[in-house]
Amino acid sequence: MTEKSGKTPTRSPSSSRWAWLLVMVLTAGIVSGLAGLLSSAGGSNLPGAVLTGGAAFAGTVGLLLGVAHWAKAGV
Questions:
Q1: Domain membership of residue 64 as a residue range
Q2: Environment class of residue 28 by beta-carbon count within 10 Å: exposed (0-12), middle (13-18) or buried (19+)?
Q3: pTM confidence score
Q4: Which residues of the chain have pLDDT under 70?
């Protein structure tokens, strides 16, 4: 027989997940836009600035998803 710890696992509502995902994507969009603008202002051509912005977007989304997973694992 197993003992129950008294803690019930909780899941956030799906609307909350969508809201957090929206915040993450908007944040990544702002970061990527600024990275592209800074790259362009630094003398990079347009394709280079777009690639810089894309890399910044992917890195920011990856970082934020990793932080969200880490924060949820602590619950």
A1: 15-73
A2: buried
A3: 0.77
A4: 1-13, 75
